[in-house]
Every structure is written in C-alpha cells, then in structure tokens.
Design goal:
Layout lengths: L4 E3 L26 E3 L4 E7 L3 H5 L2 E6 L2 E4 L4 E2 L11 E7 L6 E12 L3 E3 L6 E5 L17 E4 L5 E9 L4 E6 L5 E5 L3 E5 L21 E2 L1 H4 L5 E6 L3 H4 L1 E9 L5 E11 L2 E13 L6 E5 L5 E5 L18 E4 L15 E3 L4 E9 L4 E8 L4 E8 L10 E8 L8 E4 L12 E5 L4 E7 L7 E7 L9 E4 L5 E4 L3 E6 L1
Parallel strand pairs: 1-3, 2-10
Antiparallel strand pairs: 3-7, 4-5, 4-8, 6-7, 8-9, 8-10, 11-12, 12-35, 13-14, 14-15, 15-16, 17-18, 18-19, 19-20, 21-22, 22-23, 23-24, 25-26, 26-27, 27-28, 29-30, 30-31, 31-32, 33-34, 34-35
Length: 480
C-alpha cells in the first residue's frame, strides 16, 4: 500500500443526490516526492452518513492531468469513528504508472444520470522505481533520520541506533538498560547500554553485537522467532522468554514457548514451557508480562474453521501463565485461557497502567484490523481472573498491526497513555490518542514515521520514555 493517508472530508453534509457532488478530497502530501514501485494501494477515509450513502460514491485519479477511474475500490462496512461525520476507510490499487515522476490527484464523484465530480485534491508527487528482478541488487529502504512534528506540536528526533539486524520481530528492555532484539531468523542480540540508554555512535549507529543465542538449529529453515519478553524479576532470575515456530515430528510448523537464562551476554538453559500448538503461515504471536507479573501469550488462530471457537484450543486466545508455564491459582476455571480477544492473527498487546486496561491489536480473518480493550470479567468469582472484550475499534485500513506498546515515561508528556502500533505493512507507527477522561476511548489517530524509515515491525518503550522501533534492517528511536 502507498504509505499515505488521503482523508476525504466533507465541508458540508455531502448527501449523494442530484444537487451536490461529494466534497473534494483533502490531501496533505509530504514536501518531497514519494518513491514507490507502482504496485501499491492508496488509502483514504470517506465521510458518509451511512454505508448506503458511501456505496453511491466513486473515485477517479488524475495521473499527470489524465482522468483515470479507480477500479477495485474497497471500503470498510463499519465506520472508523463513532462521532459525526462518520468516516469509512477505503483503498484501491494505484493505476498503472510508467517509471519516473508523476503527479497524482484524487477526486470523488456520484452519477445520478450526470456525473457530479468534486474538485481535485492537492497534488501528490511520486517517483516510480519498478521492483528489481533477476540478479540485480534490491534497493534497501532508506532510514531518513531527522526531525518531525506531531499534530499536537510535539517535536521528535528520529535517530538510527544500529543497522544490519535481520528483520527484528520484537524488542525488550532489561532493567539495566540493555535492549534485547529478536530476529525472525532465530537470533537474539543484546545491545549494550551507555549510562542506562542505548546510544547511537556518531549518528551512524552502534556496532552490531554477536548473537546471544541462535535458534537456527531448532527452528529449521521454515521456522521463525516471533516474540520476546523479559521476566519482571530479571535482575534476580535472568529469565528471557520467547515464542518461535519450529517443525514438529510430523514436519508441520508448531508454536513453542520457551524460557532461557542470560549470563554474561549469552542465553542458554532452554526450557520448553508450551509446544505442539499448530501455527499458520505466515505465523504471528505476541508475548508480554502483565502488571500482575504473569506471562501473557497469544498465537494466531488456526485456518481450520472447525477449530475456531474451540474453548480447549490455545489458538486465537490470550493465555495467562506463571513464569514456569503453569496455570496461576487465581485463573478462572483453572485454565490458562484468559481472553478471547481477536479473530485471526495477534498484532500485539500492552497495558495502560493508569486504567489497567489491556489493549489488543490484531488482524481479523476477514482482513480488517481491530483494536480491542480487555477488562476483568466481573461475572467470575471474587479473586478469580479472566478477561473479556469491553470495546472494539476499527483501525485505519493502511494499518495492519505487528506490535503494540502503550506509552509510558517522561520524555513525551503529550503521549501519556497513547497506544503506539507498529505496522510493517503500513510502513508507519500509528499513534492512537485516548480520551484523557476515560483512558478507554480512542479520540484520534496519527501516522508517525510514514515512509521515513521503511517497514516498522516492532515497538518498545524504554523506561525513561524513549520510543524504540525495529525496521527491516535497523533499530531506531524517537527522542525529543
């Protein structure tokens, strides 16, 4: 998908009738030309009174002033917001473009016997660089360090911490400030800290350390390392937890939850806590410790529709475990199944420590992306714990979640309680602002790092509040 947000806003109630065309698209293009490969989809949000009104609107793109109808437009059936005017997330493939520079303008229209078309949007300038094939080297996504300003005027500095990592899948901070990086290929690296912070050297990144462990011999050629978490008592236990996929005896990929012990910058003493849980392709999993010091894990739902909703299956659920893999004594119904909080692939979860609400992002089986809140089930016996979904919100169509962190720390006071969602496919870090009165209701979203650093796969908050993120081959951070 083209990593831009085109917001179609009505200046008045648009009413798709014979009198008024839709309002013109409003686009805020970046100051420089965007480099694309010509195969992306472009996304926008369309205000409409309801889905019926939305269905009457069509779209065209002017490519270098030549009018081209947009085909295969897809719009969500549910609005992205709950307040008027309602907006619906839409997207469509970009028309065929020749290599080189182009100017794109978007317009919406209705056809009531005559075409009523809106004025064109602000121009978006793109440069098409086709996908490299054959033996030619592929282009590495650029990491554009520098500064940025949020919609509420928070000034950010984008810094490169280290380059050369191999598709970091997850990040976790130790109490001493070291950053643990899980690479999809099975390696875990530990970035050393300086004065309790991982610091870039001469603006060009730190030296990439040797792996603390490599699970290549365990996961094989088809397995992946997916998630990482450190024991809240890490200073005492030195325990590191990971979820990965590996082939079973029958050759099928299954999820494994394992525990390791860190000593002197290396990881060993592997103990398997859970295994044999069928994995889909591509697999996804999340792993975090909660405020109660229990280990929470999520693995994607099986593609076998007969097993969906199976109360005995650990797939498609959030599990709550003791650090030794056993079921906590206060777990309702004496099962590790804590919450049925997504319908497909988990994109990550984290807690707002102010409200103790668990925020869960995921991609549902229908392809939509959702952000849900999970609270304790008041219907369970006193002292027994189980979570239930207490709210659900549609994420923008361009945001397929791959990692979640609720902001905490002092560096960005304006970010307090914001839910940060990394989107590898969307090439951005989505900031979901919450209502400060309730801490449970999203009131706005903003795409950070859009096409500035490449695909954003993982996000983590350092204890002081710096925001660290992983891209295809680098670790970066946001600081004031």
């Amino acid at each position: 998908m083209l990593r831009l947000s085109i917001v179609l806003c009505c200046l008045t109630l648009i009413g798709c009738d014979k009198k008024n065309p839709p309002a013109p698209p409003i686009m805020e293009p970046p100051p420089q030309s965007e480099t694309i490969n010509g195969r992306e989809r472009i996304g926008w949000e369309q205000p409409a009174a309801d889905a019926v009104e939305l269905a009457a609107i069509a779209y065209v793109m002017y490519v270098d002033a030549t009018r081209t109808p947009l085909a295969a437009v897809s719009c969500a059936t549910s609005p992205t917001g709950a307040t008027a005017p309602l907006t619906f997330a839409c997207n469509a493939p970009i028309p065929a473009l020749s290599p080189g520079a182009h100017t794109l303008e978007l317009a919406s229209f209705v056809n009531d016997g005559t075409v009523l078309e809106s004025p064109r949007s602000a121009p978006l300038r793109v440069t098409v660089v086709p996908v490299v094939t054959g033996t030619e080297p592929a282009l590495r996504p650029a990491f554009n360090a520098g500064t940025a300003v949020t919609t509420d005027q928070v000034r950010l500095r984008i810094e490169l911490v280290v380059q050369g990592v191999d598709h970091p899948a997850d990040l976790a901070f130790a109490p001493d400030g070291r950053l643990f990086v899980a690479e999809r290929s099975g390696r875990i690296r530990i970035l050393a800290s300086t004065a309790h912070r991982v610091a870039p050297v001469d603006g060009g990144g730190t030296q990439l350390p040797e792996p603390a462990i490599s699970l290549g011999g365990v996961i094989g050629n088809d397995g992946q390392l997916l998630a990482l978490a450190l024991d809240p008592q890490f200073d005492r236990t030195r325990f590191v937890f990971a979820i990965y996929t590996a082939p079973s005896r029958s050759g099928e990929l299954v999820f494994t939850l394992a525990r390791f012990r860190e000593a002197g910058g290396t990881l060993g003493d592997r103990i398997v806590l859970l295994d044999g849980i069928p994995a889909t392709s591509p697999p996804s999993a999340s792993l975090r410790f909660g405020p109660d010091a229990k280990l929470y894990a999520a693995m994607d739902e099986t593609a076998d529709v007969r097993r969906r909703g199976d109360a005995a299956s650990m797939q498609g659920k959030i599990l709550r475990l003791n650090p030794d893999g056993t079921t906590p004594d206060d777990q309702a119904r004496a099962t590790p199944l804590y919450a049925d909080a997504y319908r497909g692939a988990p994109g990550g979860f984290d807690w707002d420590l102010r409200s103790l609400v668990l925020w869960v992002a995921g991609r549902d089986v229908d392809g939509s992306s959702q952000l849900r809140t999970v609270a304790l089930d008041s219907g369970d016996p006193v002292g027994m714990k189980r979570g239930v979904v207490s709210g659900a919100f549609a994420l923008p169509v361009q945001t397929t979640p791959s990692s979640v962190a609720v902001y905490r720390g002092g560096l960005f006071p304006a970010f307090a309680g914001s839910v940060l969602i990394a989107s590898e496919e969307g090439r951005h870090l989505l900031r979901v602002k919450l209502d400060p009165q309730t801490s449970t209701q999203p009131i706005a979203v903003e795409r950070l790092l859009q096409d500035r650093v490449g695909a954003v796969r993982a996000v983590a908050i350092r204890p002081d509040g710096a925001v660290y993120f992983g891209t295809a081959d680098a670790i970066g951070r946001l600081v004031p």
